Amino acid sequence: MGKAEDTKARLERAALTLFVARGVAETTTKEIAMAASVAEGTIYRYFPSKEQLALDLFLRHHQGLAEALTEAQRPAKGLRAKIEAIVRCYCEWADRDWTLFAYHLLNQHSFLIQVPDGMANPVTVVRDVISQAMKAGEIPKRNVDLAAASAIGVVMQAATYKVYGRFTGDLSDHVRFFADAAWAVLSVKEK
Amino acid sequence: MGKAEDTKARLERAALTLFVARGVAETTTKEIAMAASVAEGTIYRYFPSKEQLALDLFLRHHQGLAEALTEAQRPAKGLRAKIEAIVRCYCEWADRDWTLFAYHLLNQHSFLIQVPDGMANPVTVVRDVISQAMKAGEIPKRNVDLAAASAIGVVMQAATYKVYGRFTGDLSDHVRFFADAAWAVLSVKEK
DNA sequence: ATTTTATAAGTGAGTAATCACTCAATTTCA
DNA sequence: TGAAATTGAGTGATTACTCACTTATAAAAT
User: Fold this and answer.
1) Which residues 76-115 in chain A show a CB within 8 A of chain B?
2) Same domain, yes or no, for A91 and A159?
3) Can you give the residue ranges of the HTH tetR-type domain (chains A, B) (predicted)?
4) Which of B14, B100, B148, B181 is deepest in the core (most CB within 10 A)?
């Protein structure tokens, strides 16, 4: 890794850690610089602004996750298998870089509206899979967004609880449960 | 309503609306005052600081919701009925004052650690109900926090989607589905 | 090899703007 | 008429960002 790239990576990691620990607005450029062992001015050699740095970090993870989920579910046949593939991929992303994952999870509200049109999107991937399965008659037809939200919530709220420290250990340890639970949610029948 | 109480209520409502629309850190005291049609200084006759105002709003809803959930589930017999009572109560709170609800939902990260020990807590209520049901053998035994997170996620993620505008209409319209889905999550068997 | 030159990387004091909060003066109203 | 409520200009502190300058790196010329 070149010197410049190393500096940029150090800045991103320092910012990430602070953003998760104290929030984006509450983190100062001086703190980021100190944590990365550079002067404040150096930040602006690599990023046009603090906000852009924060957005870059978000979008990179957002797009990367979306593409990984797309690839993960593609070879799987049938909704049940696709769900498991998606859940496994998601949990592995979370466990691989928990700080980045937590940052993405905690700051969706701020950045989701700034996702460029056409950029790969984790939510869309899941929605499309569910929509297909409804058309194919694999699960009961209902409001797709509602069903997707509830199914996704099964995993995301567990991840959120881990961020809050309410439970510990790898998310991946619970892939089977999450997949079964999401499947159960989507299979709920109108009575 | 007295004049002072009216001013205080207007300030709270103005702050709430702005906090949801733009975030707490991004909302200035000047904006809050303008939205409430008072001078900036008036804020400080009713609240010691902007942060305390934000915390007050959060804690009042947090505690109110926890107490309502406790009452709602008490008379219900059996987990299935308790779940439905909890879900219905939660959705009604959301629909009754959506701005306050959205504020609470979007700012848990910042305020949850500041909840005083012993204060009624929505999460604890649900956790206890699930824990009881596991002990009673109504549902399979597993990590209570994990199960609670996934069950709660079914409803909370749907609420989050509504905040993002991904779907519209009252949450209460889907109580039956949420309850069925949460029940299905908790009933998932180890294989 | 040594010096010169060019470019990239890094620095940190300084700047302009913002913002939460104060307080002396004014208005409201019982 | 006195207490309570309100006002808004003022204050001190903070902060994102700039920029003139220094240092490191490497290529080119001698």
Assistant:
1) 106, 109-110, 112
2) yes
3) 5-65
4) B181
- CA B41 to chain centroid, in Å, comes to 30
Distances (CA, A) of A182 to A11, A44, A149, B20, B81: 38, 44, 10, 30, 21
Query: Is residue A53 in a domain?
Result: no
- DSSP states along A46-109: H-S-HHHHHHHHHHHHHHHHHHHHHHHHSS--SHHHHHHHHHHHHHHHHHHTHHHHHHHHHTHH
Q: What's the total number of domains in chain B?
A: 2
CATH number at residue B65: 1.10.357.10
Tell me: pLDDT of A3 over 90: no
Which bases of chain D are under 7 A from a protein CB atom? Answer: 4-10, 14-20, 25
| pLDDT digits 0-9 by tens, A68-114 | 999 999 999 999 999 999 999 999 999 999 999 999 999 999 999 99
Mean pLDDT of B72-98: 98
pLDDT digit string, tens, across residues A33-43: 999 999 999 99
Q: What is the pLDDT of residue A89?
A: 98
Q: Would you say the C-beta of A70 is within 7 Å of strand D?
A: no
